Amino acid sequence: MESIKYLLEMRKDELYQYRQIVIERLGKLKYKGKPVCHIRISSRKKQVYLVQPEGDKKEIFITPKKYAYAQQVATYEYLIKEIKLIDHELNHINRFLSFGGTQAAEDYYGSLCKGRQNLIIPIKQTDEQFVEAWLSEPYEPSGIPFDMTEYYTDRNERVRSKSEILIANALNKYNVPYKYECPIYTRELGVIHPDFTALNVKRRKQIYWEHLGKMDDEGYARDNTYRINVYEKNGIFAGENLIVTWETSTMPLDIKLMEDKIRHFLIE
In CATH, what is the architecture of 2-97? Predict the structure, then answer.
């Protein structure tokens, strides 16, 4: 229910922006006010006519000299219709959002006491149940060689680098559920292990995260460019369901940008 309200609020903002554009364009019309006639287009001859007010059936064929005026009339009619459509949609959205206190059917289970919940299988999992089920799915991480430097996150997970500590701790800070090096299958490379597989709980959307830590190494950059291409060939697109961060020996991981990406892809 909250996700629907979120999308509707976004749509409201979009509609108000459109409405403002329409108002501004109306104000720029050369001929102010409602035209004394309207436009008719001949579907057969593709010709433009000015139709006189009701009661006068006379139609005036648009000659080149009157074309500018016809453009103004057509634009006015178009913009007025846009206003009506925008206001109609806004009215319906506002009516729906006005029932903010009304409980959605899928939220009813969450309002029950724990004792009653334990007796029932809900028609839709609560966010907590969904996250618990997602995290409980077993998987085999790729495994870190024993002779590598040991790095540990706030959750006492062993990872491969200091940058991965920063990413894992930031995900934990924002309460984003994640799995470290959870395997997926690709046609080109077979089984690969994204650095992180994270969950946008609000949208119930799984998002992969690759951190490219040595982009000034030519071989590493080449291999990982191919790897990102493999992701996208398998329907996992950067900027959609794949987050990519990177660094070089002289340009470390941008912490602020990393947190912006967490908020954008995994919280909103």
Answer: Orthogonal Bundle (1.10)
